[in-house]
Amino acid sequence: MSVEDSKKVLIALDYDDQQTALTFVKQLSPETCRLKVGKEMFTYFGPSFVKELIDLGFDVFLDLKFHDIPNTVAKAVTAAAKMGVWMVNVHASGGVEMMTKAKQALEQFGDDAPLLIAVTVLTSMDAAELTRLGVDKTPEEQVIYLAKLAKESGLDGVVCSAQEAKKLKAELGADFKLVTPGIRPAGSDAGDQKRIMTPKQAVEDGSDYLVVGRPITQSADPVATLKEINDSLK
Ligand SMILES: O=C(O)c1cc(=O)[nH]c(=O)n1[C@@H]1O[C@H](COP(=O)(O)O)[C@@H](O)[C@H]1O
């Protein structure tokens, strides 16, 4: 039986200034959201920034999308687990052996192991971009194909767009977590995201976690925007 998690919003902290990020974070409550640290902030501010967020009581999704040989990725997710993060991700296209080794590396952490999630097809990509890469499938077909490999490899779920959520839940089961960026409240700017959906529709279609960045962080009132999104999910 899957237990539904009421804290669905993962805020993407994509700032180039640590103080601005921390001032924003200190207005938030760990009861109403989780935080995502990605390549920009991790490259600027490193593990000490992640630890500071954890010390403030937040669950942190370390979004570094590891994509390397199995041994290197296994060691990298081990380092993430030692940092105390709640979720970490790898690229599914790194392969079954890489994903399997990464999952095995986390076994030593028992119940404290972070959730291990595989990125399928980036939400900034559409059918034309996949074709340019030589992939002869629609985004939905490719997401489902990679998600099945991730499940076979023992991972806890995938990053996908909410547009694929309904089909993935039906094919892979309720317990396989769906983490969906490309979330855009009605009327907000899509930016570089191509496969987008509103927060409410995403959850209705089966998203377990919504990654939301600019619609919150660049809002005139980020805390109010987060509240609006959370209220829309009740
Ligand atoms: O793994 C991710 O979080 C991710 C995967 C993906 O397919 N698309 C995607 O946008 N992301 C991340 O989700 C966040 C989305 O931010 P916004 O577009 O500002 O809401 C960014 O930090 C991206 O790095």
Automatic annotation (TrEMBL):
Residues 8-229 form the Orotidine 5'-phosphate decarboxylase domain. One of its GO terms (molecular function) is orotidine-5'-phosphate decarboxylase activity. It comes from the Bacteria. Its EC number is 4.1.1.23. Keywords: Decarboxylase, Lyase, Pyrimidine biosynthesis. GO terms for cellular component: cytosol. Homodimer. Catalyzes the decarboxylation of orotidine 5'-monophosphate (OMP) to uridine 5'-monophosphate (UMP). Belongs to the OMP decarboxylase family. Type 1 subfamily. HAMAP family: OMPdecase_type1_B (MF_01200_B). This is Orotidine 5'-phosphate decarboxylase. It comes from Pseudoalteromonas lipolytica. The lineage of its organism: Bacteria, Pseudomonadati, Pseudomonadota, Gammaproteobacteria, Alteromonadales.
